[in-house]
Every structure is written in C-alpha cells, then in structure tokens.
Write a structure and sequence with these properties.
This protein is an alpha/beta fold. It has helices spanning 10-19, 23-28, 36-42, 51-58, 77-89, 99-107, 115-124, 132-140, 147-156; strands at 3-8, 29-35, 62-63, 93-95, 112-113. It has a domain at 3-117: Rossmann fold (3-Layer(aba) Sandwich). It has nine helices and five strands; from the N terminus they run βααβααβαβαβααα. The protein has a five-stranded parallel β-sheet with strand order 3-2-1-4-5.
Length: 165
C-alpha cells in the first residue's frame, strides 16, 4: 500500500536524482507535488547531468500555491512554498532535508521525511537491496548528510557501516 500525498523540496529531489531513484517516489506515494518555487530551483541549471531526468519527472507535478507566501522571512522560497502547498492540499508528508526548515515545518505540525528516511523506507519495503552504495554516492556527490546518521541507518538495516577514510 502506498502512502498518501507527498510535497517535495529541492534538496531531496537533487539527492534522489543523483542516485537515479526518483521513481521511488511513485512507488512509495500515491501522489507527488512540488510548488513552482521548487520547480524553478530544480530546473535552474540546464547543464546538470540529471536535468532532463528531473524535468521530465516533475513537470506534470508542479503547481501554484493559492495563498500568500508569508514564510520567506524564516525559510527559503522553495521550502516556504512547500510548507504552504502541504497545508493547502492537506498532504501527508513533506520531503525535506534542510535541518532548520524541517524543524520549523515540524513545529507547524507537518509530517516530515528526509531523503535518508525515504531510502530506508524503500529498503524496508523491498524496493532497494542495499543502502550503503547509495549513501556512498551521496557523500561522493557532496550531498551533506551526517555520517553518524547514515551509519546508524545502515546498522539498523543489517548493513556494514561506512568507513570515514
């Protein structure tokens, strides 16, 4: 059974695109949406190697918020529109990695999940065989995740922790 509606912020979109795993969103959620502010962020650089992949996957999922964005003083434009869209469509999850923005969203009662939690959930559902190679790719791609968190997730999923060499 799929989870409900997820609103995605740009950070996790980039991480999943680097891994070639955007399709996990379709496997895990019944509906995926992004606000136009996130669309602008993820399609800004047409020269990235995953531009076409991201563009094709998310172009039918971008939508406008109806209300006024009054959150830009406390979080960036994409994150704030994601929070507003979450509320407007009564979404079930907000896919967001930024620690500060996630804390703010959780203070609003928003159900947040990050890239690492999404990957761990995908492994639990049998959609992924191993997490360690994905985590290594994220680190090599300069995606910023705590090595302690990654190793805790790996150990919880009966995988060997990453070395810090």
């Amino acid at each position: 059974m799929k989870n409900g509606i997820v609103i995605a912020d740009a950070g996790p979109i980039f991480s999943l695109a680097i891994l070639g795993k955007l399709e996990l969103l379709n496997a895990l959620f019944s509906e995926i949406k992004i606000p136009h502010a996130v669309w602008e962020e993820i399609t800004l650089n047409e020269n990235t190697e995953f531009y076409e992949y991201v563009h094709n996957f998310f172009s039918p999922k971008a939508c406008d918020i109806k209300g006024i964005n009054d959150l830009t003083l406390i979080m960036d434009y994409g994150e704030s529109e994601s929070v507003i869209l979450y509320r407007e469509v009564k979404a079930d999850f907000l896919l967001i990695d930024d620690k500060k923005a996630r804390k703010i969203a959780e203070n609003f009662g928003i159900n947040c999940i990050g890239t690492i939690g999404l990957l761990a959930g995908a492994k639990r559902k049998g959609l992924l065989e191993e997490l360690a190679p994905l985590f290594r790719t994220l680190i090599e791609s300069k995606r910023y995740y705590s090595i302690e968190l990654l190793n805790q997730i790996l150990v919880n999923h009966n995988e060997l922790p990453l070395t810090t060499e």
